[in-house]
Each structure stands twice: as structure tokens, then as C-alpha cells.
Amino acid sequence: MFKRTIDISISAAVLLLVSPVVLVSILIIRLTSPGPAIFSQTRAGRGFRTFQIFKLRTMTYADAGLAYTLGPDPRITPFGRWLRRTKIDELPQLWNVLRGDMSLVGPRPVLPELVAEFRPQYSVLLQVRPGLTDPASLKYSQEADLLASDRDPMEFFKTVVTPDKVRISEEYLRRATPWTDVLTIGMTLLVCLFPAMSRIYGALPAARGKGGIPRDEAGMRPFGTGYALEVRSVALTGISPEEEARRFPTISQRAAQNALDKWNLLSPAQLNGQSTANKESGRALRL
Asked: Which distant-in-sequence residues (6+ apart) come within 8 Å of 59 by Cβ?
């Protein structure tokens, strides 16, 4: 009850404070792009009940495409790109908080389809209201840029990013207090103003290059065509050696060993023994 009282008080005050920004944004959207200024989409809420989340529209109206935005999307309008970068497009969700669909701090609401794929994990996360922000969303505040750098954004999103976000959100829920919520809200403001601050929550997992070649620590240069980055996926997802061979036929144990030795990670033998633990923890191994 205390958390709900805080949600109502803060969201109402902030909504009044930012209403001029929202109204001006609505006007610009209507002037620069045909269609409604407010976008709504079905998301999974507390107890798996669905609700309509509200955002400022950042894409061209009624264009067909994926429900996910995985990197640069031609549907995003020029003004919509700025709204996304500044997170102003998220401000209408304060209305969701007032209505009781969401909380200020909690796991970010996701599409019902993603909840269905990760139902055991979301059976824990959706015991509470989803939120505007939490440590997982702060760490991945630049998620679109990360996904854009991977050769298969959807696969990377579902096998690396989502498990890591779920792990972070679960850990936060176990230790959440009103004071940690206040700290998270304060950090959200800092990350919006200074995106580099998101590094406080840990390094992002390394994406695979467009050509599938692993990249060095700076994420700029390939360090060898014989080294397969899928080793990292094996460690994260816990797939069996047989499944590994089927999915990634070009990988060799020698190449894996060379890559792992280069970055002082686990050996292939250790990967087999620890894959289950890594799957549960969602630990990101960089390769």
C-alpha cells in the first residue's frame, strides 16, 4: 500500500510537471507525421493480466513490421528518433502508473509473446506490477544500438539480452526497498541525461559482428576468422555439445580453446560442466 501511495503521488506530480513537454511533442508529431500522436500496445502485467501501455508515437502510422524494435528501423520518424533518444516517448506511461497498470520501479513490461517464451521467469517477475524503470532497463538503456551491432538481433535479444535482464530484475526484486526504489529513480534521471552512466550496472554483453566474426574487447576489430563467437551462446544458453555441433557446424574445439584462452574465459570442458549454472545466472561471457 505504501508503494502504491508513492506511485500515485510521484506520478501525478511528475505528469503535471512534464505535461507541457508532452503536449508540445504531441503537436510536433501531428504536424510532422500523419496519424495519432499516442501509441498503445498490449503488454503483460501483474498476474499475467494484459493492459495497454501508452507511449508517444515514434514510428510512421500503420506501417506493418515487427512488434520489437531491433536496432535501426526505417519506420522510426526523425522526431521519433529524438524522442527515443531522450526517453520522452515514455512519459505517457505515467498515466499507466496512475491507473494502476504499472509502478514507478519494477521489471519493464514486455509483450505477451515474450512472456510465453520465458513463462517460468516471468511467473516470478509478474508477481509485482511492471515498472517504468529498474536496474535491468538502466543497464540496457541503449539496447537498440547493441542489437543493431549484432548479425542476428532477434536471436541475440532472446538468448543473451532477455535472460540477462530477467536475472537482473529478479535480483533487484529480492532486495528491493523504498530506498532502493528512490535510488533507482534518481539513477534513471542521470542515465537519461548521461547515457554512459548505465555502465554502473555492468558491461553489456559483446554483440557478434554483421559477418559473424567475433570482435576484440573494444568491439571494433575481428581477432580471427577461425574463432566462433557462438561459444558465448553455448555458455549462456547451456545447449548440449550435440546441439552446439548441429547449430554451429563451423566451430571447432581448437578454435573455441584459442578464443577462450585469448580472453581468459572458461575452457570448453568447463563450459560443458558449468553451462547449466550460467544459464540460470544469465552471466554474460565476453568473447
From this structure: 39, 73, 75, 76, 77, 80
Alpha helices for 108-252 (secondary structure H): 112-117, 119-125, 135-139, 143-148, 153-156, 162-175, 178-193, 230-237, 241-247
Radius of gyration of the chain (CA): 20
Place of cell 511528475: 14
Stretch (H or E) spanning 22: helix 2-32
Per DSSP, 88 falls in state G
Beta carbons within 10 angstroms of residue 87's beta carbon: 17
Mean pLDDT per 10-residue segment, the chain (287 residues): 91 96 97 94 96 95 60 82 94 97 96 94 95 96 88 90 96 94 95 92 83 39 32 41 48 43 42 39 33
What pLDDT, on a 0 to 100 scale, did the predictor assign at position 145? 87
Whole-number Å distance between alpha carbons of 207 and 228:
12
- Tell me how many degrees the CA angle 234-235-239 measures, rounded to the nearest 5: 40
The pLDDT value recorded for residue 152 is: 87
**Cβ(275)–Cβ(239) below 8 Å:** yes
Distance of CA 115 to the CA centre of its chain: 14
DSSP state of 161: I
Q: What angle do CA 46, 200, 81 make, to 5 degrees?
A: 70
pLDDT of residue 1: 78
DSSP SS3 for 210 = coil
HSE of 19, CA atoms in CB hemisphere, 13 A: 7
pLDDT at 132: 97
